[in-house]
Structures are given as C-alpha cells and as structure tokens.
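Why show two proteins at once? Because comparison is the fastest way to build intuition. When a single record is shown, students tend to memorize it. When two are placed side by side, the eye starts asking what differs. So, the first record is below.
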Amino acid sequence: MTTLQSVPALGTHPASGSLPSRAETREQLSKATYDLLVIGGGILGISTAWHAAQSGLRVALVDAGDFAGATSSASSKLLHGGLRYLQTGAVRLVAENHFERRAVSRQVAPHLANPLTFYLPVYKGGPHGAAKLGAGVFAYSALSAFGDGVGHVISPARARRDVPELRTDNLRAVAVYGDDQMNDARMALMTVRAAVEAGATVLNHAAVTGLRFTRGRVTGADLRDSADGTEFGVDARLVLNATGPWVDHLRKMEDPDAAPSIRLSKGAHLVLKRTRPWKAALATPIDKYRITFALPWEDMLLLGTTDEEYEGDPADVAVTEKDTAQILDEAAFSVRDQQLSRDLITYSFAGLRVLPGGPGSTSKAKRETVVTEGRGGMLSVAGGKWTTFRHIGRTVMNKLAALPGRPLGDDMEPMARLPRKLPLPGIANPQAVAHRLMIDGGTPGPQMAADTARHLATHYGSLSFDIARLANENPALAERVHPDAPEIWAQVVYARDHEWAETADDVLRRRTTLTIRGLATDGIRARVEGLLAERD
C-alpha cells in the first residue's frame, strides 16, 4: 500500500525567465527597424500593439511613464454596455458594447473580470420613473441576449438586503441589470504581456524627445530612458500616436501647425472603506443624462464619477476639493451618510476622457474612436472606452491595412483571419485557481490565506502559481505586505521580474492595490524600493 504524502502540486511548468534588462531592450529597439512603433502605453496603444503583433508585424511599444499609468488606470473599473446610450437611441452601439463586454469577461479574461449586479434606485421626484427604468433595463438585458439575466424591478426592501447602506427615504422601486467589473491596471498589464508573447518589444518609462523623419515622413522617434537618462532611438516604417490626452502634443512634433483635434473631460473618483458588505452596485440617475456610481470593488467602495471639460496640462490632472464634495453630494442621493464619512476615504484619482473636438457638453459627447493621418504620415488615434479595447485594436489595424500604397497591408495577416477571442495570459477559472492555491500554495509552509488566494486568482489567473512558487522558495515572500491587504511580498518580486515594474508607484498603485487601499506607508515604500534595486 502506498502512503499519500503532501507534496507541491502546482504543476511542472517552471516560472518563465526574468524580463530582459532595460539596456538589453534599448539595444534591441535601437538595432531593429520595426514595422510599427506605437507611442503610448495606455489600453488603446497596448491593444493595437497586441493585435499588430498577432498579425505578424514587428512591433515596438513605448510609453513616457508606466503602462496604464494615466487614464487607463483611472477608470470606473467597468466593462459595460452603456445603459445611458439607450436614451439617445444608440441601440446598435449598446449591442456592440455588450458583445465586447461578454467576450472579455467570459472568454478572453474571465480570470480578470467578474459579473456585477447593478441597482438603479427610483426616488420620488427623480429624473426617471419606475416604468421607464424598468423598460430600460429590460431592453438593456435583451441587447445582451439576456446573458446576465432579465432586467427587472424589485422592491426597496429586497434591495436593502443586498446594499445595506442604501438610502430608502422616498425610494419607490429599484431596477436591476447586470454588467461586469475589473481591475483596469491589471487588465492592461496582462494585455501588455499578451503583446510580448505575440512578439512585441515593449519599454515603459521611455519618453519621446523628438520624431525621426525621412524625406518628410515620420519614420521613428528619439527617446530618453527615464530610469537612467540614456538616449536612444527607434526606427519604424509607420508610427502610431496613441498618447491619449497628449495626442495633440505629439501631433505638433510632426507638424507645428497642426490644429487641435481633441478635447478632454475629467472624471474623478473616490475610494472608501466599506462599513458593511455590498452584494450589488448602485447606479443612481442624477439628471437626464448623468449617473453616479457606488461600486463594491476590491473589498472597498468606489464612488464617481464627475464629467467636466478640462483644459490644463494632462500631467496636472488631480482630484480637487470641489470634485470630492460633488462626488459625496451626488452619492448621498442613494447612499446613507455613515458610509460617506470623509474619514473612510483611502484614495482619490482622476483621469481624462479623450473626446473628439467639437461643441456641446462633454457629458453628451460620443465616446468614439477617431484615427487621423498627419502631414508626415504619422497616424494618431484617440477616444474610445475600456470595454471595447479589443475592437479598437482591430479597428486601428484595419485602418493600417487600408492605407494608400498599403505600406503594411502586404506584410500582415488580415484581422479577419486572426482568432476573434484570443485569451489573455493566465486564463483560468479563478475559483479553481484559488482552491488549488489554498490546497497546494502553502506547501511546505502554512496554508495560503483565503483572501490572498482569491486575490491572486482574480488578478493573475493561473500565473498565480508562479507567485506561489516564489513564496514557497522564500518564506519571507509569503508574508503580507500589510496586515490589512491580501497582497504578499512575492507579488512585488514578480512585478519587478515579470511585469516591467520600475518604481515603487508602479508596484503599489498598478501591480497591487496597496496605494488605493491607503496602505502604502513609508516603510512599505522603502522596502519595495529595496526589492526593486535588487533586480538582476
């Protein structure tokens, strides 16, 4: 009879080797001539680089800061169809958004997205009645083929059981619908990883100092590595400007006379500790066009957002006292006061929506993607929304394939021939991964805590096993970074060696949730910086 023993059972595939050094990446970028240089490491540029690499092109992706370091990690963290678009009759747009939302959350990245039930409270004297919202959520669910259930209306008492801080004074009814939620920074990083696995070369913290021209055409860029000041260049047959709020700044490098092409809208959010668990989110109509959200997210509560035109330097965007007061005041329509204490705020952030130039209120503007070609042949892409990031990448690639003279069209596989729903790295059932981590993840040491296992599974998928191996090999890395957060020190080492983390902010704000939780203390920051300095 054999005796069953407790042995590590996280699979036999070893963790992949560390990333090349920055010097090695700079040398690679400098020596090759790329088919496509993507400038801008927000989700729009990342998605385009991913699809371009899939199509067989030689692709380079650079960003002046971190990947998803600006707007792409300052969203409402939603994958959604866009309920408010039904008011404008944009039925086809909502259906397309639902298709992309469900593709990402069910097939492309089920390990990074999770379904979220939304409650639309109907108050006496509010901008919409129960009948209208009931019909609206039914139509909304129909446009997603009822894949998230049938939109319906429930009683205030039923809603209060799921959202204990729901304000019930003058509450007439609650409409119900379904969408999805994500950690936007983690989703973006996994898409960067997918681009690299498809053959792209990437470098963050590398700022463009000038464009390269050949006979009047843009054929590359000069850059400076922010880490050590090294200057280098990248040559490319075609350059794509995907710099988001900075798109017109780069266009002026190409053509000093280029007219403004975009306008910016600031969206601010607050993150608060939750007083009690929530089983659903609140989407409260403020007026005919605007909705304010109260979202259970990462064991916290996310409130927002604002929508106002922004004309300052994109680098200076920040949450003001006016923003904070507005968000709390609007949340108070449906959230009880005890949940809205300023003492519960752990973090605030603001991002800039990129909208097509033109008149009218930013709150009514369409979130469409615009691709333009400049005098020097540089393509600039701006706009769009997180939910449709894959669609935007395909749209840009179709535009590249159809350019006059087909500079890249003959060297790339058409988008129609590529897998339509190629999964992101780490795809797995997160519940199954969490179970395996708790069963095997502590071997030979103590069992992994349930909240840490769930956190790893829903932020890394099957790549969690590589982090568990690091913790198994070095017990110090199995310790929590902070007692009140699920993250462990192995994630910091993993971010350094496998996720392009260069600074403490890269780790604490975007690879983990410590900054957003208000837990990035000076001591933790110093230890993170020490681990980053130990890079091979």
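Second record. Ask yourself what differs from the first in the token line.
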Amino acid sequence: MLALVASALLVAAGLTAPAALAADDYTQSVTQPSSTQAQINFTPTTPALYVDVHYTGVPGLGQQNVRMTNGSGTWRTTVNGLSSGNVLDYWFTYEKNGPQYDTPHFSYTVGGGGTTTVAAPTFSPPGGTYSSAQTVTISSATAGATIRYTVDGSTPTASSTVYSGPISVPNSRTVNAIALKSGSTTSPVSSASYTIGTQAGCPTQSDTPNFGPNVRIFDPGMSAATIQAQLDTDFNNQKDTLTAQFAERRVAHLFKPGTYNNVHDNVGFYTSVAGLGQNPGDVLINGDVTVDAFNASDNGVALQNFWRSAENLAVNPSGGQERWAVAQAAPFRRMDVRGGLQLYPASYGYASGGYIADTKVAGQAASVSQQQWYTRDSALGSWNGGVWNMVFSGTSGAPATTFPNPPETTLATTPVSRDVPYLYVDGTGKYRVFLPSLRTNVSGPSWANGSTPGTSAPMSQFYVVKSGDTAASINNALAAGCNLFFTPGIYHLNQTLNVTRANTTILGIGYPTLVPDNGVNAMQVSDVDGVRLKGLLFDAGTANSQALLTVGQSGSSASHAANPTTVQDVFFRIGGELAGKATNSLIVNSSDTIIDHIWAWRADHGNAGTVGWNTNTADTGLVVNGANVLATGLFVEHYQKYQVIWNGQGGKTIFFQNEMPYDVPNQASWNAPSGVAGYAAYKVGSNVTSHEAWGLGSYCFFDTNPAVSSYHAFEVPNTSGVRFHSLLTVSLNYRGTITHVINDTGGTTPSGTVPVNVVSYP
C-alpha cells in the first residue's frame, strides 16, 4: 500500500516552517485482540477521506505503511506477528478538508498492559521566523496529560513550569516541552525555535526556475542519440583524473519521469546524476550509470574516483550488472538497481569507497577489491566481498557480523535517520523539493512500501543560487526566509553564510563548491530545529578559516531529538585545487545532529603548490561538542592533529574510515599533547561517559618519513559506557607504524599491509 505524502501547510501568512500538527483533531489508541496482535485505532474529529498508519517494531519487518479501514468513523489496522516486549513505534497521516497532516510518533509495548508513552507536545504556531511576537499554544494528543516547558533552551523536567495557557514569545527563543501522565511513560522532548523580528516568508520564487548553464534536464521525448551526445560531451570534460580532478567544471544530469532506452551515463568528476521523480521507479534507465577506472593513468585502480553521485532513479543495466567503482565523496542514494551492483573496477583494481543508502539491489552487490564500504537502510539480493571493513545498518540481504574474518559488521537497524531532501517534478510540471520524515530504528529503503514518508516544499520557497551570486545575495535570501538551492559552480564567499531560521533546507546538485575568502568561516548554522544541509563541497581558501562549517553556537544545549539538523553528502577539502587552510572543517555544537556521509580531506595530492605540511594546514576534520550526535558514514583523512575529537555525551558512529597524514616530517613535530607518539585518529574526550561506535578503520602511510609512528589510532576514556566494536589499523605498504589499535589494546601494525583487528573494547 502506498503511504501518502503529508503536504506542508502554511498556517499563518508568511510562515515558511512546516505546518503545526493538528493534535487536537483526533484521538488514538492501541488494544490487544490477542497476545500476538495489536489493533491501532484512530478517530478524527472531522471525517477523513483516508488515514494511513506508519509503524515499526514488528520482528523481521522494516517500516510498514498501511491504509487503515474505516468503521463508523474510527479507522483501524491490526498488526500481527508480535510477542510480549515488542515496542511498536507508530504515527498517522490523515486527510482533513483537503490537506493532509502528520501526527507525532506514539509507542506501545506489547504485553505491557496497554501502557503507552504520552504523545509528544506540539506547538501552534510552529517554530519558524516571524515579523512580530507570537502567542504559542502547546498541546498533547494524550487526553489528561500535563505539559511542562522551558523557554531558555534547557531540557524540561517534571519540576519545570506547568503549561496552563498560551504563552507569549516576544523575542527569539527556543521553547522545549514534555508531556506527563500518571501511569504512562513521559513523552520525548519537543522543541520549537522562534526567530522574531525579521521578515517572515521568502519572496516568491519561480516554480519552474532557470537552473543555469551547468544543469542538463532530459525528458523521455528527447531522442536517445541527443541525450547520449550531451552525456558523452560532459563525460569527456569530466573524466580525466589528471586534468579534471581539480578543475572548476561542475555539472548535473537530471532526468524527468519516464523511461529512457539505450542511455549510458559514464559519470566523471563533479557530476551528479539524478531522477526527477518523487520515487526512484518514476525514472527508468534501460542502460547504465557507470563509474570505472576510466583512464589509462588510473592503471586499473579507482582510488581517486572522488566527487560524483547517483540518486533517485531505477536502472535496468544493459549487461545485467551496474558498476559503481568509486572512492570517497561518491554517494549512491535512493537507487533501484534491477540487476547486480559491482563496486569494483572491471580490472579488479583497488578502490577506496564508499557509501550506499536508501537503495534496493535486486541481485548481488559485490565489493571485491573495495577496502571498506558502508551500506545504510537498503535491501540487497545478497552481498559478496570484504577486504578490511564492510559495515551495514538497517540493510536486508547483508551478511551476518563475522568481523574480522570476514570483516563484516552488521547492525539490524539504524538508530535514527532522515533521508536526504531531493528535487522532483510534480504532476503539473512544477519543481518541488521533497523533505523525508525522521525515522527511528530503521531497516530498509524509505520507499520500499510506496512513497517515502514526508512533506514537500515548492521551489517558490527556494532561492536558486547560480553563477554571479555573492555571499551578500545569498545571505539576503536567507534573511528573507528562503531556502537555498545551489546549482553547479564555484562560489567565493567574502562573508559567512548565516543560517538562522529553523527548518531551512540548503540543497546542492553538481558539487557546488563554497570557497571562503580572506579567512572567513564559510557557513554558520544556528542552534535551531530541522536544518537540512545536503550536497555541498566546502573548499578552504588560501587565508586560514577557523572552521568551514559550524552547526550550533558554542555551548548549545537545547534538545533537537524530534527534529534534528542533518548534514548529508557534505564534503570538505583543504588543498588540492587551492593552497587552502582551515583549522577545523566541521564543528557540531547542536545536540542530536545527524552527520550522514561526510568526507573531510586534507589533500595529499593536487595542483602544483597546493599540498605540503606547511602549505595546506588543517588541525582537525570533525569536532563534536553536542550531545547525542549520530554519525553514519564518517570519512576523515590526513589532518595534522586529531582527525576527530568527540566531546559530546551519547555520541554514536556507524562506520569510520581514516588515513593519518602522509607528510609528517618527523616524530618531534607530531607528538600529542599527552606526550605519546603521534595523534590518535579518533579521540573521545576524557569527560565523556557514554559513546558507542561500530566498524572503524585507521590506516597509516607516513610516506615522507617512515620512521614516524602513532601510539594508537583510537583514544578513549576507560569507562563501561564508552564501547567500540569492530575496529582495525593497517600500515599501507609498511610506511610507518601504529603501535596499538585503541588505547593500549591491539598489536603493532605489521608489514604486508595487513590489519590488526580488535573485535570489541573494552
């Protein structure tokens, strides 16, 4: 059954945030007809044309999306296959007088005597940007619940102020609230951030915008020969590792819904390929979307197949096998592969990828010569391969955990995920951006049972950034309440881009590259709810920036669990094209942020004069200060001090790939402040008491001075709440050594480019 997509609603004039959830419009409950069944009931106050329920928690099944059955005004669905202790997480999409609404999430414990979690509070009007003070109503869908709230950004408790009526929000602030009821579990924290005193609402943009000269838009009415000619021209410009890798050409290939026969898109550097349907199957390519070791200079290996992507389309491969032989920064998302998927070059040469998410592969996915790979929330026919570190979460068809022999690590679910925003064309030919819903304990593609749950926003709410735009024009659009859509290009910034409005979406295609000039920080995101960053490349300028991207102000403490900021397919580069400098690449201060596939890279090669120990200087790739931050697919390489510093409590990482810096001149210049040899790749702060990570690899290649060593790759507090699983070190070509894997555990890296493995720590 298709899950209907909840539309974004404008509740007040000029409001650009998502609509308030109409929590007072319904009642809901769960009963148990038998020990293995749960009946979910939903009664709308206003008769509804339809009600869909979405739920997870049935053993062996991912998220289910079901059209409920109406009986005398109450809509019902029976869930089977349950046992005592299973926890159903469920929510509803319902129609009311034309528009449709999403409810909060509810939970029900099977066999728990009907005890439920109190529905999380909702806010009306919702958090957002407003020109004047607002009067805010807080409500819970649970009858008889008491609401307690704070207005200073702190987390509410049972002793916080009791909500007794509408509250005034005269200036910018964050309101947090919980709902409590005797005999029930207290609700999760809800949060709404209000920005008061700036213009509310993006000046209307076009719904059929001009995306500029670097975006190719194909439709099924075009001849295959015409399409192929354009694809071949772009590929010839973008394919060469020696000349295109650090060039400034950027391009996107966008396919409108329909079927394309005999189309073969070879994907070169800085090229995004994407379907413009709402779901992957809306665009079908009977042909190929291919990455291989294309050039003679590649010598059959794919170790530098960076910065390219494929997303949101179906491929029926011409030879039965799709090939995506990539290295870092080359995501494969929302893809429907109607055959097999080969992640290695046709030559079987080495490759250093890679990342798959929200994807279905009908046949076998084979990594073969890939050193490491991460697959999230997908469905595979089967998997074959494993060199050092293959990690899966929420993926059916994945192998069982057998690390280190073979080196496979599998989590049944991904704790939290929210799939990427993406561009599509609606039935009237207008462009929209789809905004997928947050999912918890996730397994399988978001579109496996129909449309991806979520809302969409019209392009009239997006400022399209093109050649000629400046930091000033982009900041003006942000201040006016616009989202941003970056087209392929290079954008020099002489001032920081300030993202202050909750629920702002910044979406890029074709690897738009943001270059800070004069030492400014490229982008600062406020500590607000729901910002989505996707598809950007930050390239450090020649004057040192303290940070390229910062999420949340220092000291941020508000909870954003219900609506986190997401940083997805966002990449950082220090050197390579320019002699760039940046002390830190990404700093995350906001709690609950999801870092979903980043590559932070201090270049080890590039244009002449752009690489060297004292040339492209950079201390650290990622610094996490916020609580409960989740990283899924973390690639950080070659920084000059700690690669990752994690100070926040409750952090989690699923998959980490790292190389230490190649160009350390001598040991004396690279000893940690504690006095041990070298800097750890991944350092958890000494005050952290809770942190967990799975599938981590750190490699050394101290090519400038092979006498250099690092005492350990992972440095963590010795406490029971800090736990690591499936981690390893490797000395590539035996250029230098790593003495221990984690703290004092694990042996020294031997010759032969073979790993030292630690199954779990402590």
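One difference worth noting in the second protein: The CA atoms of residues 237 and 310 lie 18 Å apart.
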